[in-house]
């Protein structure tokens, strides 16, 4: 009787799963992608030094194959397997080396050259991950992706705006190193300015409406900024928090000039004249508050880069009104920074972008950039209750239903969401390129925030929840198979006293009760 030939049993479910038969036939492949989502158990991922996710796939299917082994085949197969494994490891090392040195996929201009070890707070801002929101994606059949802006150092998308506003002001000379940045903000921009300003050698003074979540002003004070809480009034009122912030910048400039003139009294005539000429003029109008206190040699962030110290204790550096609503540095932050990141992270494959608007900077900058890259990308506004932007986009007229024909209430309860919705068109919003608008409700935002927390572990704030409501609406209208991107502006940590306060919600009949997404079907 003939003795049967021995058999080779191939190794299975290893990092490199090789198939053996008469010949060794390994198959390896590499795939890089910045979108982090689960594809299966044999899809190990590593975070590359640049910050994007690299997906490494060894494309051999796990299986057990038995085949006759001719004489000498065992040794040959073993040698071939070792050689193939070494080649695969070498190829992986080369790929990661190229990706580390920048020879791999390019980064946005804003984040180019950044390393795994980032130099200081400012380099940690931006380049946030674009994450797949699994529950919403599975429910709609679309890829719904959220830009995780709550991972910025200051905790929100407004970090980008704070950086851009301060950098442009320093470069133009409107803000001097050691000066004070003033702003009227409901919270997030104020927190970002208070976070970023010290990195540029500046101080911060914030005027905030007293109906904003108390934890926001507490955070701002903890960051070392001056906080001034005022009652909420119409923007046409001189005591609106934005108008007060503008006045504070003017007052700081007048005080600075007075101090400089006083200190110059002991100098000789020519030096006195030269110093007076190098100081800026103080304008009397609020609308020109930023055209003040410029110096003959502009103070920019290069001063900080060259280790020149700023006089933090001096009040002679004046103030600068950030003016986030009308300052187009806000729009430029997203056109030059956020938009390119989204385009790169999706590799240009997105079909739609949707976001709410407050100042309008985010939706304007991102929509304009994406439209320039691909006119087929649809961009939509998501508007909360009490805001007139929905009517502006859909009908061309800025008013809310409550304001029509003089029906506006004296003290209307608009929305519990913060940082979004407005009843005027800002310069930043004018830059937006939109295809349509959706309107959400407070209940939808509350229910969505709890749904995301329960199903995805995402603890997001009110504006982020409203954005996700918009993302589902867009996905349903487009149909399965599309990619929809939105912004996760900030986390729920800043909304504990209102949006995540059970008693507060109960007082406004907003206690969440939904178990799924049925609240969007009502």
UniProtKB/TrEMBL annotation:
Catalytic reaction(s) noted: O-acetyl-L-serine + hydrogen sulfide = L-cysteine + acetate
Alphabetized InterPro entries for the sequence: Cys_Synth/Cystath_Beta-Synth, P-phosphate_BS, TrpB-like_PALP, TrpB-like_PALP_sf
Cofactor (UniProt): pyridoxal 5'-phosphate
One GO BP annotation of this record: cysteine biosynthetic process from serine
UniProt-recorded Gene Ontology molecular function terms: cysteine synthase activity
Cross-referenced Pfam families: PALP
Disordered, as annotated region: 253-296
Domain of life per record: Eukaryota
Bias type Polar residues, positions: 280-296
EC number: 2.5.1.47
Name of the featured protein: cysteine synthase
Organism: Oryza brachyantha (malo sina)
Lineage: Eukaryota, Viridiplantae, Streptophyta, Embryophyta, Tracheophyta
